[in-house]
Amino acid sequence: MRHLRTPFRIIRENLRAYLVMNALVYAALLLGIAAGLAFPDLYAAQHAVLEETGTEDLIRPLLATPWLFGLTILANNVFRAALLSIVLPSMIVPFSGIALFLYSTFTIGVIVAPVDADTAAVLVPHSVTLLVEFQAYVLLMLGVYLLGQGWLSPASAGADTRRRAYLLGLRRTAWLSLPALALLVAGAVYEALSVIHLM
Predict the structure, then answer these.
(1) Count of helix runs (H) and strand runs (E) in the chain
(2) In total, how many domains does the chain have?
(3) Mean pLDDT by 10 residues, the chain (199 residues)
(4) pTM score > 0.70 for this model?
(5) Which residue ranges run through the membrane (predicted)?
């Protein structure tokens, strides 16, 4: 039960920051969607990048095997999005992971912009995935926010040194990563099941 109580206690104690992180993430997503709709060249450029980097070519074969597709999505979300974009940068430069992820979220918004009937049809089921997965990232953003806040002002974390505040911030981030991981697993499962439905 402690595994459930502790993360929710951290959220309750930092509710304002949690709500701000939510607002930032979903605002960045909506701005990206609006930009994709308003500027077709930007939308086309983002999709061209996906083709040039081979991202779309890597995804297509996986669609035939939904469980493998789900595992790939989960691995990408945990390692690339959560660890490399949010947590690790913020462990070096306070709050940098928040800025990096907001930029990524804006880019995702541009990519998923419903510019025609086909993309709109895909966005409807995919929006559930976005809501679930982004909630996981919001939890990690809250964790690294508390990490950075404690490093800049140890007293805000109830610590007397930066080192102790940093360790407390890491501990809070670790606790918040538990529900975040559960949400990422749920998002990957839903996305794999939605692929079966769309096929």
Answers:
(1) 9, 0
(2) 1
(3) 84 98 98 94 84 66 76 94 97 97 96 87 83 97 97 89 94 97 96 71
(4) yes
(5) 20-39, 59-79, 91-114, 134-152, 173-193
